[in-house]
Amino acid sequence: MFDSFLTxxxxxxxxxxxxxxxxILLWVLPWKMVAVWKAARNHHKKWFxxxxxxxxxxxxxxVYIFYFSKKSPHQNPKGEQVxxxxxxxxxxxxxxxxxxx
Length: 101
Known about the structure:
Shape: elongated
Strand content: under 5%
């Protein structure tokens, strides 16, 4: 059983297999890096874990990047909608540096 497994790397087709795997890696790796980065930035913990662990030849990563990674608006304590990322420093609410502290 293991004899055929060990000798399969010595045939002429192994260079083609290596090239094929290298092309797949070059295709998948950038998509996976961007998708995992976006999931982390958007605080999507479940998506981060799924994207990090599953290999779907970049299909799931592309779906996440273009459909699910949109930044959602958040509500401030008054219940008003504020854009994602806008907080005490980004809204211009603080008039004095002492208000920030």
